[in-house]
Amino acid sequence: MPNSTPLRCVIIDDNEINRLTLEHYVELTEKLELAASLPDAPSALAFLRSTDEPVDVLFLDIEMPHLSGLELVPLLPTPAPEVVLVTSHPNFAVDAFELRVTDYLVKPVDYARFLKAVERVREQRRSAAPAPTPETPVTAGDSELFVKVNNKLIRLDFNEVLFIEAMSTYSILVTESQKHIVYITLKALEERLPFAHFRRVHRSYIVNTRRIDSIQDNMLQLGSYEVPIGKSYAEDFMRQLRGL
After folding, report:
1. Any idea what the Cα angle at residue 27 is, between residues 93 and 6, rounded to 5°?
2. What is the CATH code for 7-128?
3. Which of 61, 66, 148, 151 gives the lowest tally of CB atoms within 10 Å of its CB?
4. Does residue 171 sit in helix, strand or coil?
5. Which class for 84: exposed (0-12), middle (13-18), buried (19 or more C-beta within 10 A)?
6. pLDDT value, residue 26
7. CATH 2.40.50.1020 spans which residues of the chain?
8. What angle, rounded to 10 degrees, do the helices at 16-28 and 111-128 form?
9. What is the C-alpha separation between 126 and 169, in angstroms, rounded?
10. pLDDT, block means (10 residues), the chain with 244 residues
């Protein structure tokens, strides 16, 4: 992630004073943008699953009612944000690093240590950024492309692809019978696909409009799968769909 791009962050803590402190730190810090400040893990999970804009980092309390921070981390949607755990108990450190979180802050958090955690997040995002020249699908026919899967080019009939899902810096091409992981970001794949009937409907999904069986409550049914329509994509997508 370029340094000029703000990191969108979410604060999750059941203690209001702790949330206000972190909110103040975010406000003080250049290139940080607060997407949400939430009192518990279930509301955070709902927010992350519904937002159309990517979240880069969670400042996540560990001890919370209903669902702890450690229990929330494995449930995060993909692509998952970086996680900075914030807690009063240093003895959680071993559990935290088994989950491969980016950093671990002990309350009360001072601003200098907060800044160090933000820099670690930036370093992690930079190291995870896709290569500047990702693999590009090669045309094989009217509906076919060669795509690179596990270091091998395979011929794939895109008429059989139901949808494409983002997974970190990779993408998953989903058919009725198979899933293919390709080493290209969803954004880069969207720019390179030569098929007009593949439409972006969510920050994490591109769908084959020819394979949509039904639409209900902002959910697309494609075969046995359901794909959500993101709020920021809904109006434009429905207008395009009516014009197909």
Report:
1. 80
2. 3.40.50.2300
3. 151
4. strand
5. buried
6. 96
7. 138-242
8. 70
9. 12
10. 74 96 96 95 92 90 89 84 85 53 88 94 74 51 74 83 87 90 84 86 93 92 94 87 66
DSSP category for residue 229? P
pTM: 0.54
Edge-to-edge strand order for the sheet containing 214-216? 214-216, 219-222, 225-228
79 prior amide bond cis, ω within 30: yes
Closest by CA to 129, choosing from 76, 190, 56, is 56
Please give the backbone phi and psi of residue 198, each rounded to the nearest 5 degrees, phi first.
-95, 120
Tokens standing for residue 97: 């690093």
2: which 2 tokens?
């370029």
| Second-level CATH architecture of 138-242 | Beta Barrel (2.40)
Which residue pairs, CB below 8 angstroms and at least 24 apart, start in 20-27? Answer: 21/108, 21/109, 22/59, 22/86, 22/109, 22/114, 25/109, 25/111, 25/114
Buried (b) or exposed (e) across 93-122, using 16+ Cβ within 10 A?
eebbeeeebbbbbeeebeeeebeebbeebb
